[in-house]
Structures are given as C-alpha cells and as structure tokens.
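User: I'm putting together a teaching handout on how sequence relates to shape, and I'd like one worked example. Could you take GntR family transcriptional regulator from Streptomyces shenzhenensis, show the sequence you're using, and then write out its predicted structure as tokens right after it?

Assistant: Happy to. First the sequence, then the structure tokens directly below it.
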Amino acid sequence: MAIQLVTQSVGDALVTSLRERILADEITAGTAVTEASVATEYKVARQTAKAGIERLVGEGLLERTAHRSARVPLLDETRVQDLYFARGVIEVRAYELLASKRLLTPEALTAHEAFQACSTGSNVADIVQADVAFHRALIDGLESDRLSRAHSVIINEIRLCLAQVQNAHLLAPAEIAEEHQTIITAIRDGNVPRAGEVGLEHLRHAERNLLEYLRR
C-alpha cells in the first residue's frame, strides 16, 4: 500500500516521512534504504527517491559505503561515545562562553519553550527535532558560522542517539526540559563554571543511559 505524504513539495515530504520513520525506529538500524524500494513504496520517481536518500545521508541519518545501498547506521558503543565526545567539546565550551557574556538569544528561549510544549507528547521525531533546535539555537547565539557548521554536522548525526533514548524510554522529555532549564539559568546568571558543568552532565546523563541500554 502506498504511503500518503503531507502537502508540500514531493521531495521535502518524502524526506520528512523517511526521517520520521527512521527516528521512530520504524526503519530499523542496519536496514537498507534503496532507490527502488523508496520509489515503489512512495510512488515517486527514482530520481526523487535518490535525491531524498542523499539528503538523509548528508544529515547522518543514513550512511552509504562504496558500491552499497544506503543504510540506517548501527549504533554501537564506539559510535555513541565518539558522538557525545565531539558534541561535548563544542557545546560545553560554548555554554561557558555564553555564560561569560550572559548571552541568551530570543531564538534560544523560544526553542526551549517549544521543547517544553512537545515534551508532553509522544512523537519521537518532534521531540528530537525540538531538542536539536534548542542546542542549535544556543550555539548559533555565538554568531560563528564555522562553529555552527561544525556543530550542525555532529548534532544531525546524534539525532539517532536522541531518538534511541526516546524509543527505549531511557530519559523522559520532561527531565530533559529541566536539564535545559539548568543550562539556561547558568548562562543567564553568568556562572561560567556552572554552565560548563551542567552542560557536560546533561550530555553524560543521556550517554550513560544509552550505553547501559546498548550493553544489555
């Protein structure tokens, strides 16, 4: 049966649907996502399917090796640890810099409110997107194009980790929202050490829970 797409450009709607299914674990880790299967399932042209797959490869939600179909990446301990390490290198220092300037942009506060609003829901894709938007808005507040681009690469790929945390019920969205608030408070208060500490613990909390789950 063909899957119906919401009204928007076919290419965008296709990517949105595939992204939501990957984040909801409906397309599971290790599953091949081919142009032929996508074109058939969604009743779209092969070229549209190919473009959609390439966009998701660029986002880190699919990976492709030479002469192989794109697949949903497998999350293992090494990948998770490296992703959170890279994320921490950027985010922890960024929060300290933001605190030193007491810099909270309207976009960051709006993103926090948006996450709080969706934290009572059950749509994993919405929760992950809102979580990513909050952290991205904080980093963007430093107004460094290169820093934002570097962070975007990592945060896009780490969405698989965030989704797994939600799919396995490892950390309640309301608890994540509270941790976001502690970061905001530290930045607003200009407490540089505290901003770094709570930012790091926020990452370690999710990483610990996810690693424990993967080791079961």
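A couple of points you could highlight for students: The chain has two domains: 10-71, 77-214. The chain has a mean pLDDT of 93.
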